[in-house]
Amino acid sequence: MHRFANPARFTRLADRVLPFVAAGALVCLGIGLYLALFVAPPDYQQGESVRIMYVHVPSAWMAMFVYVAIAVASAVALVWRHPLADLAAKASAPIGAGFAFLTLATGSLWGRPMWGTWWEWDGRLTSMLILFFLYLGHIALMNAFEDQQRGYRAAAVLALVGVINIPIIKFSVDWWSTLHQPASVLRLDGPTIHPSMLWPLLITALGFKLYYLALVLLRIKSELIAARLRALDLAKLKAT
Amino acid sequence: MKGFLLIVGRDLRLALRQSADAWLAVLFFVLTGALFPFGIGPDASLLKVIAPGIIWVVALLAVLLSLERLFLADYEDGSLEQLLLSPLPLELAILGKVLAHWLTTGLPLIAAAPVLAVLFNMDMAGLGTLLLAMLLGTPVLSLIGAIGAALTLGARRGGVLIPLLVLPLYIPALIFGVGATDSALAGLSARPDLLLLGAVLLVMLVVTPLAGAAALRQALE
Amino acid sequence: MTEIAAFFDMGGYAAFVWPSLGLTLVIMLGLVVQTVGQLRQRQRRLAELEAEGAQRARRRPVAAAGPQT
After folding, report:
1. For B37-57, how does the pLDDT look when each residue is reduced to its tens digit (9 = 90+)?
2. Does A39 touch chain C (CB under 8 A)?
3. What is the domain count for chain B?
4. Measuring CA to CA, how many Å separate B76 from each of B35, B81, B82, B153?
5. A102, A103, A208: best mutation site toward chain C, by most C Cβ within 10 Å?
6. Residue C50: pLDDT band by 50, 70, 90 thresholds?
7. Fewer CB within 10 Å: C terminus or N terminus of chain B?
8. Could you tell me the residue range of the domain that residue A77 belongs to?
């Protein structure tokens, strides 16, 4: 378990896989973008505006995926005290918040022509807004302590409480939105999606995943250096 | 069990000695609630409709006000460390502190809720359900709030941080609490909402001691 | 020419499609730039501190031999 806890070993490993992951992300995003813009057909109901889906839906998937990743990393950090898990959680949170924000912004831009409003208190959009707030709380708590170790621990506990609460929040928001408004005329994801739209979506989503992987490796590497800097600063302080 | 009661008793005695705090929360609750008609206008039919929502949101904010003190005094004077060393499981001690917090903030808010209901001209047929929903919902607010209070011990700007952590987690309690009252006012059964609110309460009764104990242990490490 | 114009027009949804893609690009690139910038800055600082540390380590025996410290 602690085999990769060695910073030097992790950095070596990260440096070795990073070029491949980054190249894979670029290729997937390039192909996905090409397919989404030039190959995928316009929707028979939504016309060309459906192309927003190819960034909106992968962003939404990533926003949820990254939160689960943080929760898993937090559990590993709390149970096994694995130092890299702390760093992974800290490195992931801003990326997840970015994806949650993107989901909200592109959802709003898609909602304007489709619903006629920039914001609809639709169950899914509302849940994403709450997820975005959970990310902000996590980031704020992570950085609220003088002692970084306490930030790691507190944020890990918060992430686990959050992940237990997310299904409850999701259910309550669905309950609430069906109570207060009729179901949306347009379902954003129909039960059947034509392969000519599915493939661009899946390839873009894979590109987003690889992008996250590459970025999180870089950020962990950066956090390792930051931890080393803190230790050096402390040693210097003691020496004087 | 004896230790648990000791904690509740001690916190209650402390709260009674500083009973101004509990009064302030109630005052805040009524005062903030009374601001809404000034913002919205004295339209009785509109106020009547939004009354349950306003009462719940304001109750939520009033609870938020009192959260920072939940563990802070014990943290600063070292009695939290005593608690950690005592034979009573920390999880139970946390439940005791939450119970004391609810008795000194949640319960007074429930007692003050009819005042706001009258001010908002709410249909009194829904008052019983409102109070019942608050009886189930305000403990949830104390329980989730305790996690936030424990996590932010010793943090920079801890007091500002708590709302950011706690408010998103309050949303289910708010939804089911208002839902129950709205259903009763519409002549529908409030049962589903109340049962869901009870389910949330049960979940948090398990989650809070575990998460709170983890948070307090790391705060005192 | 008209084909290109039609492509950029996005069936009348240009004002919504292009900002969506643009914003995605800005945020994803922004995160990369921030990450790489922070990494570079930290690497630089680490190099400085290590150089300093190495210097001090070399000087220390001399200082210890002196009457003070």
Report:
1. 999 888 888 898 899 999 999
2. no
3. 1
4. 36, 10, 12, 9
5. A102
6. confident
7. N
8. 20-184+199-239
